[in-house]
Amino acid sequence: MSKTIDAPVLITGGAGFFGSLLVERLIAEGEHCVVVDLQRCDKRHERLTAIEGDIRDAAMLDRLCAERRFKTIYHCAAMLAHAVEDKTFLWESNVDGTRNVAEAAARHGVRALVFLSSNCLWAENMGRPVREDDEPAPVEIYGKSKWEGEKILAGYADRLNVVSIRCPTIIDEGRLGLLAILFEFIAEGRKVWVVGGGRNRYQFIYAQDLIAACIAAADYPGSEVFNIGSDNVETFREVYGSVIARAGTRARVASLPRRATLFAMRLAHTLGVSPLGPYQYRMIAEDFVFDTSKIKAALQWRPTLSNADMLWLAYRYFEQHRAAIQSRRDVSAHKQAARMGVIRLLKWVS
């Protein structure tokens, strides 16, 4: 059933992987959507206005909020560490851009701002599910920029409702980026490598489940921080094995020694020949799971897919669109395959 529309909503980063899926759902629910993104939005709809713009441009955001009088802003725009070489650009986009969004929202009476934060605020196994009151300790620039964004937004909690949702890796059909490297190994029947036996558990979030949480968060009567993620998180070995079995390829899960592998990953990153940064090479062999009891209670939210099920959706899309994916340019980082770098050497021996 369509909603009664009293004001449009703004989606920053609405041309990206997750943002575009959010826009689809919002339009389906009857919302009028305005997208601001550095990339061209490829969607067309009578209730969609797409603007190629930069959230570092405070004057542009101010004019837009003054003209449109948004009721909600979904702040999804962010630059990823493996997607840009200019770290100053990343910091300005993720931090200064977030400040600009919040300032424009507060100045022009936006009711609610929903911010996509990240599990990259940590890079250590705590030995238990991570709670919202655990002090963040990011180790790389993307995680640090997200933590800084959260702190900036907390300063606006007395002027608008701000809900920050800390997300693990977002998975759905069309999710590529670093996952495309894994999918290529599976499709070609190669060894799929895990570290130290692959018995560690790392949580994902299904994009459609995250969208449901974002929409519910827009109506939350206050400001809050929530963790989100899947339930019953399987080990990497179990997840990869499940996808390989469904794919029906000759791929198989194989293990690399933990200490030597982590040293090699750290060295490759230092030399600039690997797409895996400090967060990835630390967490690839660790458990990391969010405690999601708070968001379940506050928003009456529940996840619907397991890690294995959502990764299968993403792999199936990769296999069906592989030729087109290889030629993609000028799209967001998660909509194209990440460069392998030194990982290609591992592929040759797999």
TrEMBL record:
Gene3D superfamilies referenced in this protein's UniProt entry, alphabetically: NAD(P)-binding Rossmann-like Domain
Organism superkingdom: Bacteria
UniProt domain NAD-dependent epimerase/dehydratase: residue ranges: 9-229
A Pfam family: Epimerase
Entry protein name: NAD(P)-dependent oxidoreductase
Organism of provenance: Methylosinus trichosporium (strain ATCC 35070 / NCIMB 11131 / UNIQEM 75 / OB3b)
Lineage: Bacteria, Pseudomonadati, Pseudomonadota, Alphaproteobacteria, Hyphomicrobiales
